[in-house]
Amino acid sequence: MAFDGIVIANLVHDLKYAVEGGRISKIAQPEKDELLFQIKKEGNSVRLLASASASLPLVYLTDTNKPSPMVAPGFCMLLRKHIGSARIVSVSQPGLERIIEFTLEHLDEMGDVCRKRLIIEIMGKHSNIIFCKEDGTILDSIKHVSAQVSSVREVLPGRMYFIPHTVEKSDPLTVTPEAFSAAMSRTPMPLQKALYNRFTGISPIIAEELCHLAFLNPDKAAVDLTEEETLHLYRTLTLMMEDVAEGNFTPNIVYDGETPVEFSSLPLTCFDSPRFKRREADSISQVLKTYYSSRETITRIRQKSVDLRRIVQTALERNYKKYDLQLKQLKDTEKREKYRIYGELLNTYGYELSGGEKEFQCMNYYTNEEIRIPLDPQLSAKENAKKHFDKYNKLKRTFDALSGLIKETKGEIDHLESVSAALDIALQESDLVQIKEELMEYGYIKKRRAGDKRPKITSRPFHYLSSDGFHIYVGKNNYQNEDLTFKVANGGDWWFHAKGIPGSHVIVKTEGKDLPDRVFEEAGALAAWYSKARENDKVEIDYIQRKNIRKVAGAAPGFVIYHTNYSLVATPSCGFTELE
């Protein structure tokens, strides 16, 4: 994710229209490192959220209010005193720095008009909100930075404000062809890294986009660029910067399925592939709010599923070890037939023994080859035969028992891996409820006591509409897979699943119609996406009509058998918006 200088430029562009010329009506400090301004302009009221959180620094316009503490912090009180009703004269960004500066006009104690500066720095863990006089003298900041904390710059009342330049970078808005060429020629690092290290406001993802647009390998050393390649890259950068300077922004979020993975104020063509989809928004504020709320939702679900994941993983590891041990023991039983043959041959030719031999050599009538049979010299031929038959019977009993146990253990592993796959695609707390119910039913979690209220199940399968208007359903867990296949689907509907891999059942409702080839491809891509093979470039998918699917007797929900299926190879992708 790139909260870079270009995103800041987009924000400043929007803020000029939304708040420049308006007046601050309210100032709140909901969190220790966060401010919320209410600004009125031409009869309209908007809220501006500014967070200097080290983990999640943000600035965006919002329509959502947040509760404030009963007693306002000192920094908030200082701002209310000075700029509680100030007019916003201008909103600006120095170069392509990750800095937004508000010039504010207000009346002082004597009634004279004076100006102040509110500077918001979005710089990762070094983010800050700094309040200054017009000449740059710092009045206060939301975070105090002393010389003991930073040797680069102190941010304390009375100090002069300046932008720290720890690395020499050029402004891409004004860089000349000569300066660009010189910067590239003395940079031995990979091209992508050189771009975001040498130019202000360029993030790694924008650097990758520049390389993509210029058809250059991002891993190629910058110093190895030819003169033509350097000039072409410069022109690509110039065209991008023209859009930034003119305010031609396209706020968008890139999704990997339903998971937001990147956002930008410019189109990210480097993500153009079936796996990713790009959704545009009306404003960068909307992008930021959607992106971070989506990421927060995913993070929250991950946190809430930690206990379930630990239970499943612990059970899986235990069964993996048991399965390996059982396979090893089964391999030891492979020599059982040898002992049966020893016994039979001793019963057939044992009359030739006189007693006291340690081995007996005879013809194996099964292979017509000579064979050496080890003997116990203390036992007779008949007793030696019985000893070998006893070994054979013991190993055979072990083989029979292990064959059943291995099947059970493998079934348990498959079941647990399917539950793990369901946890990977869970997006809501209601999805976790159904998974927890399944783990309770199969004894991995202690069952609720008699009289305890069973939670209401509200989770539903994913529901998409294909490009040709066919309804596609995707199960989120084993219970939903079972219901989709045996209750929702009709005999003529089509069923899809990743071959030999834990994943969701995908059902395409045909309504009695023939499916176009594109629907098979789209359903296959969904089956690949909602499987454990999501990260693979290609996944083999089995598909078959529902009437040919059978449930496995005694197996966990969602486990089926089928024969004479069709197969296709799909690229994992979820290029649809879920229907309500």
Task: Tell me about this structure.
- With 580 residues, this protein is an alpha+beta fold.
- Helices cover 37% and strands 21% of the residues.
- It contains 13 helices and 22 strands.
- A six-stranded antiparallel β-sheet has the order 15-16-18-17-19-22.
- The two termini are 28 Å apart.
- The model has no long low-confidence stretch (mean pLDDT 90).
| Annotation, overall tally of beta strands | 22
Helical coverage, percent range: 25-40%
* Biggest sheet character: 6 strands, antiparallel
Oligomerization status of the protein chains: single chain
Strand content range: 15-25%
Describe the structure in brief.
With 580 residues, the protein is an alpha+beta fold. It has helices at 5-18, 74-83, 177-185, 191-198, 204-213, 227-246, 284-304, 306-332, 336-349, 381-425, 429-441, 478-488, 517-529; strands at 23-31, 34-41, 44-51, 58-62, 87-92, 99-107, 113-121, 128-133, 138-141, 252-256, 259-264, 276-280, 359-364, 369-374, 462-465, 471-474, 494-498, 506-508, 539-545, 550-551, 560-561, 566-570. 37% of the residues lie in helices and 21% in strands.
List the helices and strands and how they pair.
Blueprint: H1 5-18, E1 23-31, E2 34-41, E3 44-51, E4 58-62, H2 74-83, E5 87-92, E6 99-107, E7 113-121, E8 128-133, E9 138-141, H3 177-185, H4 191-198, H5 204-213, H6 227-246, E10 252-256, E11 259-264, E12 276-280, H7 284-304, H8 306-332, H9 336-349, E13 359-364, E14 369-374, H10 381-425, H11 429-441, E15 462-465, E16 471-474, H12 478-488, E17 494-498, E18 506-508, H13 517-529, E19 539-545, E20 550-551, E21 560-561, E22 566-570
Antiparallel strand pairs: 1-2, 2-3, 3-4, 5-6, 6-7, 7-8, 8-9, 10-11, 10-12, 13-14, 15-16, 16-18, 17-18, 17-19, 19-22, 20-21
Helix pairs in contact: 3-6, 4-5, 8-10, 9-10
